[in-house]
Write a structure and sequence with these properties.
rod-shaped; 2 domains
Amino acid sequence: MATGVKEADVWAAADALLHAGEQPTIEKVRLHLGRGSPNTVGPHLKNWFRGLGMRLLAEQGGANDIPQAVTRAVSQVWETALAAARNECTAEVASERKELATAQAALEADRAALEQERGRLRVRESDLEAATRSAQDQAAAAETRLQAIEQQMRENAQALKDAYSQLAGTRDQVAALQQVLQAAHTTHQDSLMAAEARHTAHERRWLGEIDGHRQALKRAQEELVRLQKASDITATQHRHELNQAHAASSVQTQRAMKAETEMQTLKAQLEAGAQAARAVETRWESASSQLAVQIDTLRHQLQTKDRQMELLMQGKARRTSRSVSKGDRKVVPSVAKHSPLIKSPSRKHQST
């Protein structure tokens, strides 16, 4: 609603309209002023019409020369303007009442909607309060779970720290076991090399002795022509026995290589710990014992072969002696002279 429209402003606008030959109305006064509402302009315009007669009479008293016809015309204009103003004011009031009723109905509708909105807001507020309490409960539960998780994390961290400590101790033990196993392996390698060296020396000695026996047998065969067949059979048997000895030596070498392979396998089992190391040491001692036993067995077999060779040579010497004694006894000195190897086993046998 426009403000600042005063009664003097309305009256001045009505006077201007009247002097312009126009009938002052609420709308014309508003248009002339460019502002004001009907509720404000209407009462001021009514007051202007009420004072218009008195003003005209005052003007007539001050100016008696105004014709009466003009006065009547002004009075008629006044009455007409007053009636028009009344009608216009009535229409404006009716329109304003209608607008007021419409606004009041709208206000009632807005009030009802507002009440509904308030009810909905109260329900919403209740829901929000319930949701807030639920959220607070959930937050408290989450806080409890978080504290439990933090406690579990601290326990897990401590357990992990203990596990790392145990792992470090285990690594130290493994390193110590590796050193022990390496030392055992080195000792085994040294023992194995020494055993191989001894075996090689024994084998060379055995081969040398076998060569000596072969040469002795060859000389005996040259001297004992009549016993060539028996000597050949005996030599064949002896060669077979020597081959067996060589085969046994090869078997021992293979067994030694097998022991080395087992040692490598035991080295790969380092992670098994001290028990595996003790098992390796036990196996190594067993293999060494078996190798020593087998070497002793070979030595014993070779000594047995030497003994059998000596007995064979002694038997050949006896048979030669008997055959010579039955034949020409003059041949005996010649045979004795050229067969020193035959007498040697006899002397050895006698000394034995």
